[in-house]
Amino acid sequence: MRNYEVELKNRIEFIKNKLAEAHAKGIIFGNSGGKDSALVGILCKLACEDTVGVIMPCSSKVNFGQDMTDGIAVAEQFNIETRTVDLTELKKLAVTTIAGEETLNKGADTNIAPRLRMLTLYTIGAQENRIVAGTGNRCERYMGYFTKWGDGACDFNPIADLTVSEVYEFLEYLNAPASIIKKAPSAGLFEGQTDEMEMGVTYAAIEEYITTGKANEHDKAIIDRYHRVSEHKRKMPSLYGDAE
Q1: Of residues 160, 126, 130, the one with CA closest to residue 11
Q2: How many beta carbons lie within 10 A of that of residue 70, not counting itself?
Q3: What is the domain partition of the chain in residue ranges?
Q4: 176: buried, middle or exposed (CB in 10 Å: 19+, 13-18, 0-12)?
Q5: Taken in order 21, 25, 29, 31, is the CA torsion positive or negative?
Q6: CA of residue 71 relative to chain centroid, distance
Q7: CA angle 51, 57, 59 (to 5 degrees)
Q8: For 106, phi and psi rounded to 5 degrees?
Q9: pTM, rounded to two decimals
Q10: Going by CATH, does the domain composed of 4-233 fall within 3.40.50.300?
Q11: Do the strands 81-84 and 51-55 form a parallel or antiparallel pair, or are they unpaired?
Q12: In a structure prediction context, what are the per-residue pLDDT tens digits for the chain, which is 244 residues long?
């Protein structure tokens, strides 16, 4: 187990340095009501008093229910300023404008909400001179389980090296609300969605594989495929003229 007293000190210093480098007055992050955004929000608040968490429900009922309740609970406990921006109608407009009468496939449709959320964060951030905190953990990044230019976009990420179990351990160390720690990880993109159900593999298996190299054949095949096909998400765009 990590020494979370030391981890806390080091990550607070990291965040303060990012603020200074950007000459920013504050931080903004998406408060999804999940474990990762909770930890990022707490760390950012401890590093910068002027931290704002934005709750951004978008169509899915869980966004307006448990996710919002849990996000507010974290914000209240750690005194994080909270704003709510309902993106439901904006998503409908985007679908109608872009797709017209056609029905978007699942991937195209579900990626709209994360990109609208990042549009919201960067718009407010630009208006108020805030930098955007990312909330992806190590397991998600290895799997490529994030939306390119959506929740994968940020100015800095203070938890990118933490596995899912380490995120939970850190939250327990910080005495975060139990509801955050106990809930099943979910991006809340559609009704009944959970990360593990969608990927077809557990976070425990992913973590075991990326930290020890051990996995059964079924899990290894899934993890390797996710990592391989998502490689483009972890790189900057290819630019003609750049050295390979």
Answers
A1: 160
A2: 23
A3: 4-233
A4: buried
A5: positive
A6: 13
A7: 165
A8: -60, -45
A9: 0.93
A10: no
A11: parallel
A12: 899 999 999 999 999 999 999 999 999 999 999 999 999 999 999 999 999 999 999 887 667 778 899 999 999 999 999 999 999 999 999 999 998 878 899 899 999 999 999 999 999 999 999 999 999 999 999 999 999 999 999 999 999 999 999 999 999 999 999 989 887 776 666 566 688 888 999 999 999 999 999 999 999 999 999 999 999 999 999 899 886 5
Distance CA 236, CA 120 (A): 22
Q: In sequence order, what are the residues at sequence separation of 6 or more whose Cβ sits closer than 8 angstroms to the Cβ of residue 108?
A: 99
Question: Is residue 27 a contact partner of residue 131, using CB atoms and an 8 Å limit?
Answer: yes
Give the β-pairing of 26-30 and 51-55. parallel
Q: Which amino acid is at 11?
A: R
